[in-house]
Amino acid sequence: MEKILVTGGAGFIGSNFVRYALANTAYRITVLDALTYAGHLESLAGLPPERFSFVRGNIADAGLVDGLVAAADAVVHFAAESHNDNSLHEPRPFLDTNVTGTFTLIEAARRHGTRFHHISTDEVYGDLPLGDPARFTETTPYNPSSPYSSTKAASDLLVRAWVRSFGLRATISNCSNNYGPYQHVEKFIPRQITNILDGVRPKLYGMGQNVRDWIHVDDHSSAVLAILENGRIGETYLIGADGERSNKEIVELILERMGQDPSAYDHVPDRPGHDLRYAIDSGKLRAELGWAPSYSDFGAGLDATIDWYRNNQDWWRPQKAAAEARYREQGAGREQGRQ
Ligand code: NAD
Ligand code: DAU
């Protein structure tokens, strides 16, 4: 493989993957990205032009997609509407991008026999009880809760069907919550870091007992490369780094690491249908492909992420006011929904 098409490469994980792959392989990479509110060309600044190119466009544009997929040896498909809160407010774009967009890509990959790797999420499995040893595995039944996770589940099932019925050369990975640089400020960790930098108190949904299984974005990238290069066609691999923590713990840790009183946050109304706990068993990926995460110290990874947001205010400031305005709109809607 030489030429890789990366969809959604101007987003959080896609842009980190592009940098990681350029540094660790000899691939030439083309990014296809619509530059929605979540995509930023600045996240791809300074990449070598002889190995990297950018195309602005929609993954649901069949004509554009056909030509790009035909020219690639493999597609790594990150593009998605990715935020649960937005999906509860306005589900339509999630269907258009996550379902129709994925359909458009796999149809092109089928026509051209192109290797396809589909990026998905642990949220397709629903949630787990708190304080329970159970974790998601590749055979856990699908049980998504939100418009976002149900459209990701739909996209996974499309890929599986295209493998079985049309012989699509595809793999799927379902990863847990990522953290690191270039994450949109609507998401939990960057929202709280940038709030604190702005002198605003962090916002914790409900009592904050919900648990997420955190992985550094570079560990996600290394796992995707391992699957792309050595994964078995038709297989699903779960990606996780044993990083379970409650939201309350995370908010307190961010405050503490930023030199603030760890109790200086506000509880705000909970997310409707809020999944309680995610936890990944990544045993298959580790045993079959010899993958292991490099980031074992969450506190150190969080410190580096805090430093990144402190030192890259030109990157996030342009998004911040719009993200908080969306939250105010969504919050008002939720309150009315309760009456
Ligand atoms: P993101 O929202 O930061 O980035 C998404 C990117 O896709 C943006 O650059 C956006 O412009 C682009 N995009 C959206 N609609 C498009 C369209 N119709 N055509 C072309 N481009 C379009 O998302 P992210 O957090 O980087 O997530 C990337 C992928 O990883 C998603 O598929 C998501 O489901 C999956 N995932 C995310 C996490 C996480 O913790 N963030 C964990 C597991 C899996
Ligand atoms: O598990 C993988 C998923 O992780 C990905 O598929 C999604 O694309 C990604 O957005 C993420 O989904 P979450 O809903 O878990 O992430 P989010 O950052 O929105 O929220 C993390 C947790 O923090 C969640 O329990 C809700 C809570 N939260 C979030 C925000 C924005 C708060 O308590 N306060 C907040 O302000």
Description:
- With 339 residues, the protein is an alpha/beta fold.
- The protein has two domains: 3-178 and 214-239, NAD(P)-binding Rossmann-like Domain (Rossmann fold, 3-Layer(aba) Sandwich); 185-211 and 246-276 and 297-327, UDP-galactose 4-epimerase, domain 1.
- It contains eleven helices and 13 strands.
- It has helices at 12-24, 62-70, 84-89, 92-112, 147-166, 188-197, 217-230, 247-257, 283-289, 298-311, 313-338; strands at 3-7, 28-33, 52-56, 74-77, 115-121, 170-175, 178-179, 203-205, 211-213, 215-216, 236-239, 244-246, 266-268.
- Helix 2 packs across helix 4 and helix 6 packs parallel to helix 8.
- Bound molecules: nicotinamide-adenine-dinucleotide (NAD) and 2'deoxy-thymidine-5'-diphospho-alpha-D-glucose (DAU).
Short description:
The chain is α/β, with parallel strands linked by helices and 339 residues long. It is 45% helix and 16% strand. The site of nicotinamide-adenine-dinucleotide (NAD) has 30 residues, from helix 1, helix 4 and strand 5.
**What fold name goes in the CATH topology slot of the largest domain?**
Rossmann fold
Rounded average pLDDT: 96
Helix tally equals 11
General form: globular
Structural class, please? Answer: alpha/beta
Please report the first level of CATH classification, the CATH class of the largest domain: Alpha Beta
According to CATH, the homologous superfamily of the largest domain is NAD(P)-binding Rossmann-like Domain
Radius of gyration: 19 Å
Q: Could you spell the SSE succession in H and E letters?
A: EHEEHEHHEHEEHEEEHEEHEHHH
Which stretches of 5+ consecutive residues score pLDDT under 50? 332-339
CATH architecture of the largest domain: 3-Layer(aba) Sandwich
Total number of distinct structural domains:
2
**Total number of strands:** 13
Strand order of the largest sheet: 3-2-1-4-5-6-11
The hetero compounds bound to this protein are:
nicotinamide-adenine-dinucleotide, 2'deoxy-thymidine-5'-diphospho-alpha-D-glucose
> Largest sheet, described in full?
7 strands, parallel
Strand-residue fraction? 15-25%
